[in-house]
Amino acid sequence: MPAEARRPAVAGQFYADDGSTLARQVEACFRSERGPGDLPPRHRSGARTIRAAVVPHAGYEFSGPIAALAYARIAAQPPPETVLILGVDHHAAGRGPALSNRPWTTPLGQVPVDHALVRALDRPPLAVEESAHAAEHSIEVQLPFLQYVLPHPRFAALQVPFGPADYLEEVGRAVREAIAGRDVLLLASTDLSHYVPVATAERLDRMAIAAIEARDPRALYETVVGNDISMCGIAPTTVLLFALSGETLSARLLKWGHSGEAAPMRDVVGYASLLLENGAGTPAS
């Protein structure tokens, strides 16, 4: 019997709970002057250079345009066979790195799970734990963007709790071995500094961004922990960097922004979109 689909936990909160309204909301993120400024192109290039992206996960009003910058570039290249989304365990709901092996729904429809990839990932310390995903938003809010920019998205969800750097390296190694030989786009879902003045957010966030641009997972981890940067997705982002550490890639910042750009507030949350790319490109399959 097919697994029952996971239903949205934050539709109507982080994004619209009606399909047509949500589609317009996603399009507004692309058209925003804080984002790409226009809808994604209809025509794709002949080769894919994007290996991974780091994207925010707040309410679409606040972080959606920043996330759309990465998704617009994904839309302009040949689609991957599958997407692995590395998310945050905001609620400490998992017993460890938690996989999901069922489809997820959004108001735009159902997103099928890549069961073969989940089976490859399902080994210690990773394990399927559906209950850990029940209330978590960091993976869920990426799905409407994927549904908009990819023709037939398949995905796997991996929720990563915070832990020591060596532990995250072990998780990254498991991810690296599972995706070997597969056409997988990786996404790390994270916001940056939380509820600090703009100048503080930018100063601290630029330190974390520099470590991501250097593709140095230990430097990122030590920078965030050592400077008490409230980057909620330090675990999934560190895992992403460890997983791709053996590949020849370059990382670049598309944009940094903050919640105060969307609504007046004294203390803000920081957001950034970054891409990890290879120079030659991956031929379209």
Question: Could you write a compact summary of the structure shown?
Answer:
The chain has 285 residues and is of the alpha/beta class. It is 33% helix and 23% strand.
Radius of gyration: 17 Å
By secondary-structure content and strand pairing, the structural class works out as alpha/beta
CATH topology: Protocatechuate 4,5-dioxygenase, Chain B
| H/I helix tally | 8
Between the first and last Cα atoms, what is the distance in angstroms? Answer: 31 Å
| Strand-residue proportion | 15-25%
Q: What sequence of helices (H) and strands (E) makes up the elements? A: HEHEEEEHEHEHEEHHHEEE
Helix content: 25-40%
Please report the total strand number as a whole number.
12
CATH H-tier superfamily: LigB-like
- Second-tier CATH architecture: 3-Layer(aba) Sandwich
The stretches of 5 or more residues where confidence is low (pLDDT under 50) are 281-285
The best one-word shape is: globular
Largest sheet properties: 8 strands, mixed
As laid out across the biggest beta sheet, the strand order is 6-3-7-2-8-1-12-10
Question: How many separate domains?
Answer: 1
Mean pLDDT: 95
CATH class: Alpha Beta
